[in-house]
Amino acid sequence: MNIKSTAVKALQGTLQPCRTNKLEPKPHTDIAEMKPPSNLTKGAKQIWKFAVSQMPKGMLTTLDGPLLSQWATTLDHYNRINAQIEQSDLCVYDEAGNLEPTKLLNMSLKLVQTLRQLEQELGFTPVSRSRVQTVGKKEESTNGFLDL
Description:
Layout: H1 6-12, H2 42-54, H3 65-86, E1 91-93, E2 99-101, H4 103-122, H5 126-130
């Protein structure tokens, strides 16, 4: 069962007042007002800043910071490991003469799985992003037939 927060339901347009938790905590500060955590690597900080600069206002709040940190750190690890993979072989022969993927390749594949999960949670994939609606001024239609 996939449970969504009230904020996600509102952004996706599926919020129903009768099913809304009136006591759910509502964070108020947009993540754009938050600096990247000091414990991030230089690469992860750059990834964090890029992501925050690209997302619509109000998409994430400061409470989502740790999740964004995980994503930025994982993507930084993925980038660094792939840079090492480019300098080496993808597969090696074991003692029995069987071809097997290198440890670096296995680590890269595991990071891809983690990245997919984090990106879906954050709304960073094309499919998950298509479900999110930003709150803003509704454009007025000039075509009367569209309003029927």
